[in-house]
User: Fold these one by one.
Assistant:
Number 1:
Amino acid sequence: MLIGTSTSAHQVEGNDKNTDWWHFESNGRLKYKSGSGCMQYKLYKKDIQIMKKLGLNAYRFEINFSRIMRSPGIINQREIKHYKSLIRELNDAGIEPIPTLWHYTLPMWLYNIHGFERKENFSYFIKYVDALLESGLDVKYILTINEPVIYASKAYLSREYPPFKRSYIMFNRVLNNILALHNEVYDILKASGYTVSFANNFMEFKSDAILYPVTKALDYLFNQRPMIQTRFDFVGINYYKTIDALRFIGSKIRRSRKRLWFIDPTGIRKIAEREYKLFKKPVMITENGVDTVDDSYRIKFMNEHFSELMKAKRNGVPILGYLHWSFIDNFEWNFGYNRNYGIIGFDPITKRRIIKPSAFALKQIAIKNRKT
């Protein structure tokens, strides 16, 4: 079984200057600046050695579209060499490289021509994918996109992410476009022999029995719609929390409910079992983690969720792997560096890595499940 961690480029690389996010961080539209961050772009070899010492055998990372295509249609071969070097280092360390091709950020020039709002812009992303294939990606698994519903809803409903719009019509269009783009890329990658999927954010919705139709509708929108509209070889599950459906839809009853969401380890098992029943495809947990400064709680969270995942496996669900979010404390979008998801910390001045006890807890999971 694959046991490892996940990250995304803008959150860990540092100085990701060609993106829409960097632009809006710089002009103040976004509250927090990512800056140099944990500088994994320069320090990836050191980070891979930490992964190796921890006995981890998988790492999900993002190949940064915005670095590789800094100008419309122009491929930066130096940046492709960088990611090929990262992949080679992982393979040499016995760590399965699992690249994601797109995780929220757009090149600023693509943002200026309306990004994924327009299907005619797909050609740029396809050219990026073709360039990666021509260079030869020494990987088995590829994730095309990350959390399409989350991106579309935060960018086109809640106005938290660029382009900060509020339109259900645009939300629906962009979501459909991203899913269609995934299918195009899936076919290209599949023809080259890769095992392909995307990472979907799954939420377990709970409510009183009378609201069962509401929970089913929410489940369809957030969980099942992306799966139904796409082609994939395995189910990539990002799971963090269970949602109180009453509070989510703004019911007056919500006033008696303390929280919109809560942590429920059984949710990871239920989702894995349900998705396998629906699609008969193996499951990979592509993200699962918790924001906490109490690392003993992170260890508890990790062990409880992994235990539930193993119950799903015993119940017949083929589990490819468990990737914890995140390898390192990083830039958490509209929360800046005020979130702590990593099993590794870092000094913001020296960038020195600080190995937390939870890293050794994940190491124990890796040791026990290496041959399963």
Note: The radius of gyration is 20 Å.
Number 2:
Amino acid sequence: MSQEHSEAETVLNSIYSDLSYSSLPSLKIETETPTVTELSIGFQYFQALLRSNYRESLTGEVSVVDIPYQLFVDVVGFLYTDMIPTSYCTTSGFESLCLMCEIANHYSSENLLTYCERLIIARLDLCNAMSL
């Protein structure tokens, strides 16, 4: 394992430790963490949310209720690496890739949206085109 890969893995592990679920199906993130800083840089939605007088900026906690946990972890990983796990590039990962594309659109991340769109176009065939 290269030193760069090891350093990236260390950073990602610290990011993932910022993410936690409450007993409800929502993700809660403290706003004073590197994850939220990256989210506000990578997603216009979070930037607007945290630079306003919304509850999240006042309470210091962001709740994300519309994204499965692992998918959100992968989205945050993309913000640091500009890559998504290879499982999204398989036939079985096509549905998750489409969901990630929807999330990128919903939360206004141009880089992630473009990345996902390119992968979807490259993997589009007769079988999965009907699901779009």
Note: The chain is about 60% helix and 10% strand.
Number 3:
Amino acid sequence: MYTTASIKEQAHIFPKIIIGILSNFLIITLFSCSDADNFYGELEKQPELLVDNDYKAVYAIGDTLVIKGRLNPGNDLRIRIGGAEARPGNIRKYQVPHDNYGLEYDLVDIVITEEMGLGEDRPVTITSAGISIEAPAIEIVGDALTAILDKQLQLVKVTDIPAGATVLHYRGNDGNAYFWHNGEKKLTRFVRETGQTAEVFNESHLEGNFSISEFYSGSISPDGTYFYFSAKVAEPGQSRTVEQWRLVRFNLQANGLETLNRTEYDLRVNRRTIEAAAPFEGNVHDTDPAKRPKIFQATQIIPDEEGGVYFDLMGHFLAYLDAEGNYTYLFNFNSAHNHTGKEPFVPNIYNPDTRNYYTVSQVHQYLLPGTKIGYGISYIDTKQKKMYTNNLSWYTSLFVTDISTRIQIGDYANNFLTYGDIPYATSSLKRFNGGLVPVSNNTRLNPLPVGGKLLGLYFIDQAPSGNENPNSLAGYGLYELPALCEVDIENEYVRRYAPKRLIFNGFDFGMEDQSLSIDSDGMLYFTANNGTVIVKTEYK
């Protein structure tokens, strides 16, 4: 039978319950305090980083990265940057001034080394007491000694350019050079190995079939076999009412002459119609002469490695003749120029409806083919089939266009070194501030396309070539400028080509100078002193 405890019995039980509850609470509290102590102890062991303006985004090899924070150096502090374990240098405490609680933190100096790896997003990991945290990633750039080659380069003279002669386009790797002498209508070849110059073509090779009235442009194939040239010509017995042009290929090894295209156009105004000027495209070997394309004036000829040839038509059009003889207009630079005056690349075309000649703008818009784009051409990488354009607008940049697809694939800002900036010659493309586009009033020296990269002289606008004072230019000389650099557009990375600055040895680059070629030893060739001499790089 269930009975209820008396009031007296309950009075004895209640205090025992209270004591039990309080005991359990005290035990729980003690354990909680112990856990809290352990928790805060672990927090104290964990490194904590202080990131301020002293922590930079970019460091060069040899620079010192100062890491700040609660680092607990006594708890087996380790710092790893990129692919290498860093060696902590000066370790010290810093007392925060005017702090009533005596707040202080650790400072650790880390010297950036090449073993940490060049490039963007180099991870920075800080480990103390076995606990790791990640610091903001940094970019490591090369110093003046970080380069592809292992020795400094200088300019040396190769040969004088004969007075009145023009250096022709040639991308061979033998260091040879070809000169067109317009007065004598002859081609000479300078051979680097022997230092000798010899005549390799003259009008006698035309065998009386025609004479050269006006030489427009010429070029040598990369293997040194063919001499291409575009000219207005005169044939024996030629009618006074017509003018003629020829695109010619001469075999320098076999002394064989081949006319790739012969174009005739009437001088009488009412016969200079669009029908007479066409076709503009077609195969130069077509058995039907009426279907062969009309090729007039080619102002720059650029042979490729596949037996084809690019033609720059006064900077207004880019055409291509492939190895099978198919002639095609690739690009129509329809807004790259001020369209006034007469067409220099196509003779005047008469419009019977208006009884006047078509304007340059009308030729671009309505008459000639080619993919229309609003910019021109500066240079071509024939192997990679890419066209580069120096966009000299207010915000200067470099355009990259895929020739195969005829689509612009890149627009890269022309980062330019300004007063007080640190020059980055080996860095990511976005950090590189050597000027992708030459904009100096003294030179327009474009780089050489080599193996899908651009190899040229940069920082030349910031460090004038004739200045040999290493402490000049607000200290830029201390960074060894100007520098030869290799620009990898595809991978967006730039590397200094040779250590330190390029030594000019009294040579200079002017508006008439150009990059010529690179030989099998990796030495570069240029014209210098405003087109009066050819120079090359050589180890100092």
Note: The two ends are 115 Å apart (CA to CA).
